[in-house]
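Re-run with default settings, no changes from the original entry. Doing this only to confirm the output is reproducible before filing.
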Amino acid sequence: MATPHEKIAESLDALKALQNEGRVSIRSFDLSRTHKERLQKNGFIQKVIKDWYIPANPADKISDSTIWYTSFWPFCSQYLVYVTHLKHILIILILMMKK
């Protein structure tokens, strides 16, 4: 059975893989529920809005907004690309249903 340190290391590896892809915004389905809960509990990710997270430093205080200020524009960019993509898919589906 894995130790708690091994479990958090596994979750951090999953987070690192996303960061290696250039991801700042992390959707809830990008990580398994276990990884997400473990990382959030230990302060490695912070919830921004429902189902969206950003990487964080567990040593920072909860009231410290530095991580948000440094992640704001990359987060917005990735979030808007995702939302726009969903909107285009929805339009295509609606048009296909009309045929």
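The beta strands are 26-27, 45-49, 52-55. The helical segments are 4-20, 33-41, 66-98.
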